[in-house]
Amino acid sequence: MITTGKTRLRAVFIGTLLGLGACVADAMAFESPQDGVYTDRIDWGMTADMSGPASAAQAPWGHGFQTAIKAINEKGGVNGRKINVLTEDTRYDATVERVAYDKFVSQTPTLGTSGMGNSSAQTALVPLIKRNKLPVIGTYTTAKVAIDPPTPYFYGGFCGFKEMAQVGIGFFTDHLKLQSPKVALVHLDVASGKEYSSYVEAAVTARGGTVKSIPIKVVAADATPQVLEILAMKPDYVAIHGVPTTAILVIKAMKQYGIDVPAFAITYLGTPGVYENLGPDAGKNYYFVSCFSPASSDPKAAAEMAAAADKAGFGPLKDDINFVAGWVVGTTVAQAIAKVGAEPTREKLADMLNAGFTANTSGLSSELKYTAADHEGLHGLKPLNYDYSAKAFKSYGDYKDFDKYLK
Amino acid sequence: MLSQFIFSGLALGSIYGLVALGFTVIYKATQVFNFAQGMLMVCGAYFAVTASIHLGLPFPLTIAFILVGAGILGIAIYFLLIKPLGGQALLPMIMITIALSIILRAVIELIYGGAPLTLRLPLPSGVFVLGDVRISQLHVTAAVVSWLCMLLFIVFFRRSRAGLLMRATADGYEAAVLSGIRVDRINAAAWAIGTMLAAIGGVFLCQLQLVSVELENIGLLALPAVVIGGLQSVPGAILGGLLVGLIEQLASGYISPKARDIFIYVPLLLILFIRPWGLFGQKELGRV
Amino acid sequence: MSNGVTAYLVRLRHNALPTTLRVIGVAVLLAILLYLPYVLQFRSIFGVRLSNMQLLNIGLSQVNLTLISIIGAVSLNYLTGCAGLVSVGHAAFFALGSMVAAATGMHLKLPFLATLVAAMLAGAMAGVVAGLPSLRVRGLYFVLSTLAIHFIVVFVFAEYQYAFHDVTGVAVGDAKIGSFEIDSGIKWYFFLLPITVLSCLLMRNTLFHREGRAVLAMRDNELAAAAAGIDVRILKLKVFAFSSAFASLAGALQAYYLSNVAAEMYSLNFAIQFIAIIIVGGMGTIGGGVIGAIVWLLLPSILMGAATEVKSGPGDFASFLLAHRPQIVNLIFGSIVALILIFAPHGIAGFLRPLWQRMIGGLPWRGRT
Predict the structure, then answer these.
(1) CB A325 within 8 A of CB A397
(2) C367 domain residue, yes or no
(3) Residue A13: is its pLDDT beyond 60?
(4) Is the bond preceding A149 in cis, omega lying within 30 degrees of 0?
(5) Residue A115 placed within a domain
(6) In CATH, what number is assigned to the domain containing residue C190?
(7) Between chains, do B33 and C140 touch, taking CB under 8 Å as contact?
(8) Closest to A70 in 3D by CA, of A363, A307, A293
(9) Does residue A169 share a domain with residue A253?
(10) Distance from CA of A323 to the nearest CA of C (A)
(11) For the segment C342-351, what is each residue's pLDDT rounded down to a tens digit?
């Protein structure tokens, strides 16, 4: 026993020595970075939940972002430099998000960072974002404190809950020709659900209607209690906030109880997976509002993205609005870097964006525009649903048609 | 309203009961408090995906595939992880099941990807209307199948020779070894059965919603079910599952969905104080 | 006194180095600890710049978070490893600590350090309550009572958060001592390091006193301990209060470090990670908690860094691995934990101890009995 133990220890020692040796050898090839800008490449950070509880939505976003950058690099990169994405998997953990952010600031410096899809973690980082001056461009979710008041170092990249509520309520109230709409709102009993609930309430009250907010758990196995409340209320239409499972449980249970009213969900729930699960029967009355266009809803605008997605092995994701959102942010980042000029720095990038910047998203999203007073970026949304016979998403008009609902 | 909540609560509770029963079988045989039970349930759902979508098997063969797959998985877990730890203290045994669930999750995401999948099995999906109560046929099927499995297990456990050996081993490990029972085989069988029961529960849950690793969290509701019913008790696990299902529906329906955890865990604390061996368990070591 | 306690004390004596060596050892360790934050902050050692992987992909904020986790892990190890009370509800005290720190800071306007003390006091009181089931049940049943407590505390936290704070979480105030604000990684490091070291020493030293020996005796044989005149019931509650106070302190520190905490953070997984830490590190010793926290928090990042370095490889398989890097890291990580459990049942500390002893003069290692 003792000899084997000794052998094992010796093996461990030798292994450690070899590892150290390799590290020392590596020290020769070292280049001092300036804001993550090197002679041939630019380092850019990206954080997303690639393997944790929110990965079903955020991993496609991450893949969309990476695919966009890959496509840009294949066309020669930005001003002669390739963009090198440093991905950090945050597992929806606020401490890991913090570590990743600090890493991009000084450990492996990057020119900027994107993603940051955990709103509590983002809120916690706001003081650091202001202090460290590392531009955060294109976030998967945008916390209120991050953009109000705006800081030169933070720029959102997803439709806001407020706009989702306004466009959704406005469109359905007019579409169904209602004077004072009765709306049932099913929302998660977590932070963002509460926030969304307040926006829906404001939008419905503005139209002289009534709203009943019905909470549901993230880990729900069944939506019977919620749907019975909907049944008792007899609403004109239903609004849904949650995770894909929430939408599936609610819509299926509504069908079970014979509630035949339309339902619209937040952008995050407009994925092909949800429609596929619901099937044509239950899915035909399920809509969502989005500031991104899934590939099949506008094949012309999405041609470049679709080709790149197929090439990168993410073909099945191109109809997922999360993937589209990641792609849009990726192209936006590249355009912003290009506009800064040959020698980009964090400071120049932040100044340029703060002075006003409009990205060309080639119709894959509503207008993405930052001004000194507005760092949210995307405002316009449109309602969509899925046409099962054509196997494609169908939009109910253009983004501009619904700007009248935004306040 | 009330009857509606009771029906859906019992249906869900049956699934929890099934998963909890699998948990109890494993616990009785090997004294492992299996935190990976939820993940084993998820494995059942993904076995169904492989059989039905990837292999294109017809429905009866899909069922067979799930059961065989789950059985092999259970046996493999026993011989690779549980047996080498061989009767260590409580905490390492709990920890190994946590490590197991990290590993299983990673493997599933590697094979199937992280995005939730949709699986359609030819199970009834319509609605029964009884007066003003509407019952989903899927719920009824889930409940009926769960009860059949539980019945089958109880008959096996009480009447068959293997069941007898299993009970004997659970009652006294040394005595079982001395009387020539091949304890390893019995324990491996218990893991296989426990995994199969969880897998069946997983198949129904993924029909109610999506195939996703996040189903694990629902599977973990089997833990309070087991404790409320009594850790060592087979009927206790089933009734505990039903009770948790009922509490969940009634609490969400009449108070708030957030209240669910409170209404499950506060009674659990009370039961631990008053009857630590559970509602249906036998009084044993438990007390100081 | 039980056999286990004697063995423990004998072991402590055997582990002791000659005084001069010990002084040198402590001085070297201190020098390393004092220099470490500058190395990590400026990514260079004595002016020689190091690449990210040469510093193992580790940054200063990971080290700071590790210091906080060490307090949490060591306090759990005190409760579980030293006193034998297995708890999966440790995250509840973390949550409680951060909640009390935020609440006393906001509603009572207490200064930073006072909120830390308040968090510790609240933790100690809650620990007594959480320890009550231990008077009635033991083993697995007790584990489950701590699980129940976890869910109840998180529920209360969420209600508090929604009632008084922003939906994205509970914002704690700035970490200010007088007019001095702890606002950089290095300042945090030098604030956390003494707190962590003191907490560990305090917990370690209690084990040498009468009460601490009684704790070990209780773990090894409760009946014998009771027969020897130890009031096991009071002792259990004391241990619980002591351990929970430190867990709450760690929770409050973490809240200040992150500046904003939300109920969602304190999931069951968060609680489970502390159990994993003490098992990986080694149960029943203070060093085990420290080593475990270091390994658990830093290893995933090292694995991830190594995985990022692997850029090229042959064909489809390499690109598959690259696309699934997080999953591979989780897989390796889970496997390492399983291997440690099976092949090093006393954790890394138990694995290193014989090595350490051979180094300092080769007294045979005596395991816990």
Answers:
(1) no
(2) no
(3) no
(4) yes
(5) yes
(6) 1.10.3470
(7) yes
(8) A307
(9) yes
(10) 15
(11) 888 888 888 8
Q: Are B169 and B183 in contact (CB under 8 A)?
A: yes
* Contact residues on chain A for B116, CB-CB shorter than 8 A: 56, 244-245, 273
CA distance A56 to A268: 11
Q: CA B170 → CA B26, B73, B78, C74, C295, distances in Å?
A: 10, 22, 16, 36, 37
Residue C154 inside a domain? The answer is: yes
Residues A386 and A237 in one domain: yes
* Measured distance CA(A245)–CA(A255) in Å, rounded: 15
Identify whether the C-beta of residue A387 lies closer than 8 Å to the C-beta of residue A287. no
Task: Show which subunits contact C, needing at least 3 CB pairs below 8 angstroms.
Answer: A, B
- Asked whether residue A228 falls in the same domain as residue A310, the answer is no
Residues of B with CB under 8 A from a CB of C: 33, 35, 81, 84-85, 88, 90-92, 94-96, 98-100, 102-103, 105-107, 109-110, 114, 220, 223-224, 227, 231, 258, 261-262, 264-266, 268-269, 272-273, 276-277, 285-288
Q: Phi, psi (5° rounding) for residue A157?
A: -155, 20
Check A27 against C168: CB less than 8 A apart: no
d(CA B97, CA B77): 9
Residues spanned by the domain of C18: 3-359
Residues in chain B with CB shorter than 8 Å from the CB of C268 are: 220
If one counts the domains in chain A, the total is: 2
CB B193 within 8 A of CB C117: no
Residue C111 in domain: yes
Q: Indicate if A263 and A316 belong to the same structural domain.
A: no
- Residue range of the domain that includes A236: 161-290+382-405
Q: Is A219's CB within 8 Å of B217's CB? A: yes
> Domains in chain B, please, with CATH?
2-274 (1.10.3470)
Average pLDDT over residues A250-272: 91
Assembly ipTM: 0.86
Q: Mean pLDDT, consecutive 10-residue segments, chain B of 288 residues?
A: 86 91 89 90 95 93 96 96 82 87 92 86 84 84 91 89 84 76 88 95 90 87 85 86 91 82 85 78 52
The tally of domains found in chain C comes to 1
The C-alpha atoms of residue A264 and residue A169 are separated, in whole angstroms, by 9
Output the domain CATH number for residue A224. Answer: 3.40.50.2300
Q: Residue C264: which pLDDT band, with cuts at 50, 70 and 90?
A: confident
The answer on A330 and A315 residing in a single domain is: yes
Residues 98-127 of A with CB under 8 A from B: none
Burial B20-54 (b: 16+ CB within 10 A, else e): bbbbbbbbbbbbbbbbbbbbbbbbbbbbbbbbbbe
Q: Are residues A150 and A168 in the same domain?
A: no
B144 CA to chain C: closest CA distance, Å? Answer: 30
Which 3-state string (H, E, C) describes C20-48?
Answer: HHHHHHHHHHHHHHHHHHHHHHHCEECCE
Q: Is residue A314 part of a domain?
A: yes
Are A98 and A45 members of one domain?
Answer: yes
Q: Which of B191, B153, B182 is nearest to B71 (CA)?
A: B191
Q: What is the pLDDT of residues A89-129, one digit of tens each?
A: 888 888 999 999 999 998 889 999 999 998 888 989 999 99
| Interface contact A186, partner B, CB < 8 A | no
> Does C41 fall in a domain?
yes
How far is Cα B115 from Cα A317, in angstroms, rounded to an integer?
A: 10
Helix (H, G, I), strand (E, B) or coil at B52: helix
Name the residue type at position B152.
Answer: L
Q: Which residue of C has its CA nearest to B82?
A: C342
